[in-house]
Amino acid sequence: MPVVPAGSLDFAALPGRLSANPLPPGLDVGASARVVRIAPGPRTPHVHPRSAEVVYVAGGTGTAWEDDVPTRVGEGDLVVVPAGVPHATVASGTSDLVLVCFFPHADLAANIEELTGPVRTAL
């Protein structure tokens, strides 16, 4: 059973967030996952055209935008975003929002489209 220490994650900058793949290279689980850190401030949405996304809020508080509908979220909440729905999660307060995101699609790079707007903010 692979265990990935939190300190070993390699975060890359994406629009409005930092994202890391927590799955070890070469491990084929037929799905993909990301650990995401979102600093407070506005951001633009994105969409996953080929699968739903299941998001676990591991830390912080914020607003989950699903298309034009905002919902407040906090640590321990689970958000389910249907395939093809524009969405963005925005941190509120002064600390990062930490998410663990799961996708039933193995190639996340082929399953994400960044959008230019509308800009979303926390409630």
Automatic annotation (TrEMBL):
- Name of one Pfam family that matches: Cupin_2
Under the heading SMART domains, the entry gives: Cupin_1
**What are the Cupin type-1 domain coordinates in residue numbering?**
11-116
Where would one find the signal peptide in this protein?
none
**Does the keyword Nucleotide-binding feature in the UniProt annotation?**
no
This protein's UniProt keywords = Metal-binding
- Cross-referenced InterPro entries: Cupin_1 (IPR006045), Cupin_2 (IPR013096), Germin_Mn-BS (IPR019780), GPI/OXD (IPR051610), RmlC-like_jellyroll (IPR014710), RmlC_Cupin_sf (IPR011051)
Q: Say yes or no: keyword Nucleotide-binding present.
A: no
Q: PANTHER family in the record, alphabetically?
A: CUPIN TYPE-2 DOMAIN-CONTAINING PROTEIN, OXALATE-BINDING PROTEIN
Give the protein's recorded name. Answer: Cupin type-1 domain-containing protein
